[in-house]
Amino acid sequence: MSEEVLRQAPLFAGLGEDAAATLEASMTAVSLRRGEVLFNEGDDGDQLYVVVDGKIKLGRTSPDGRENLLAILGPGQMFGELSFFDPGPRSATATAVTDVDMRSLGHEALSPVLEAHPGVANALLHQLAGRLRRTNEVVGDLVFSDVPGRVAKALLDLASRFGRGADDGVHVNHDLTQEELAQLVGASRETVNKALADFASRGWLRLEPRSVIILDLDRLQRRAR
Ligand code: CMP
User: Which SUPFAM superfamilies match (predicted)?
Assistant: First the structure.
């Protein structure tokens, strides 16, 4: 199972069985407990990581100590590649949201893979382009959207990756505290809680600890626009 998840990562895009097995053998298993920090923004680092199980949050801290979450990554997703393509310190802090299993690959091992397999380079460019698009959208939303709209959008994004369809709706086990949800949306916890309570009172969702059940996907999608 973990091998299947690992091979969904862009790093394995288009590799034949032999090349994929060689690449997998050169990776190292890394486990983190919930809350453990893998690396801090500003650290030197020469590894990239693929999440096999669990969730990682990538965040930045302002000089006065406030935190902003850039992304929540789950199984099959990769991070730590920016300091390879643009050598320099880590651009964000990586922290385990749950217990996490990952595989790491040294940056020095990546160059030969990219040279021998252009499909992998294409897949990594595709991932970077997707992140730039998403970042542009987030910046636009910070300027143009209100907090409830941003909360709705963040919930839909989490649902697209962690959601599971059931009879009563889409169960999204995001594993985030309300504080972390607020950091992801870029608003205060109070404002985000108010938006969530409003959605719940309209019957669009049900709140549970570290998870949400989306009952009316259509209305939430319209609110996210
Ligand atoms: P690196 O800078 O090596 O370490 C932090 C990692 O966080 C970075 O590589 C990217 O892989 C990841 N990262 C940084 N910014 C974003 C973002 N906006 N969206 C998703 N991942 C990001």
Answer: cAMP-binding domain-like (SSF51206), Winged helix' DNA-binding domain (SSF46785)
